[in-house]
Amino acid sequence: MNTHNFSAINNRVGTSGAGSVTGLFRDFTVASAFQPIFSLSHRSPVGYEALCRPSDADGLSVSPLALFGQVKDESDNVLLDRLCRAVHVQNFAGFSDKSWIFLNVNPLVTVLGKSYGSFFKEMLEQNAISPGQVVVEILEKGIYDESILSAAVNYYKNLGCLIAIDDFGASHSNFDRIWNIQPDIVKFDRSIIVQAETSQMVRKALPNLVGLIQELGCIALMEGIETEQQALIAIDSNVDLVQGYYFGYPRAVLVDPTEQDNMLPELRDKHTLFSEAIRTRYRDAVDQCLAEFKAVLQTIKTGHEQREQSCEKLLALPGVTRVYFLDEGGYQIGDNILKHELPEYADPRYKPLSEAVGANWSRRYYFRQAMLNPGEVQITRPYRSLTGKSQCITISALVDTPDGKLVACLDLDWS
Predict the structure, then answer these.
(1) Which domains does the chain show, CATH number per domain?
(2) Between the chain's N and C termini, which has fewer beta carbons within 10 Å?
(3) Whose CA is closest to 104, among 187, 14, 19, 21?
(4) Taking the model in full, what pTM does it have?
């Protein structure tokens, strides 16, 4: 069996005429390119993904797929994977940069590599790269055996490297893999930011998805950002790190910090305008019915009118879909008080959820906040209504009435 240990791999690595390190695999020359990864908070690159840039025997650039298409067996697989990493690490070490280097690693090669001699640790030591400076991007495609994936991840974790899951949201990258791998960084697949650019539904959900990843103890990285609109959506989602052509193309050298002095501050200013438009719509939607909602609260305090009568003006306002009342335990008193005509909400598929007499809403944010802040009006963020098919905002307040304390609630359409 061939030996592809550090010494053997190092013999395939040399310096090109341009001064960079390259490697040889059959008739192909392997070179490096580094794409910057920016922290939105630090406003500077904090890492670089190392990417393979091959050329053929005539010196013409070819696709990495053409290079990896030359792999014929297990030995080739290990050799090429290690060769690429050796080239990337030596090139990166030459920059004397303290940023992270993101290395793509096939976990199958890590497991198979035990039969081909030691490599990774020795390679890092030889190039004075600390394992803590390395982010190992696990390439999961084609790995269906979780024990193989787990063994590879544990090897790099024990060495002291950080672990990233690539292409989250596509193919095999899902929450199961996050539970099992417990990565340090989750890279969102480019398809997500592309969909968010054209779909309001995806755009609304993205901040919650990013927040969930962060609550699981991972850094959220959005990759594949190519337009200003995508960059603004990424910022709005509260993602931690960003990567893509918009922020920097892969190059043989690292980013000159002076090139990026104004890019992120200018983008932040544009995001302020971008998000202000959303906040303005939200305020306008709420403000148009807030005064009338407070008037209803005053009316039901006196008990001079039936609750249904006091809500007539409120229900006539654009966007208001229903008013309902809860007791101190969160149980709904009576049915929803609705507009006379709600054709867009009269969807027969949701009939099992439409009747809410006696339903308990005590777990809802709008109820808990109203109970904790008597007399103060509470307003939720948009969320999916359970009693219809729309997104809604709920306005609520705890009020004293002749019949006892009630939480008055108003749902406002946010579709």
Answers:
(1) 6-261 (3.20.20.450), 289-413 (3.30.450.20)
(2) N
(3) 187
(4) 0.82
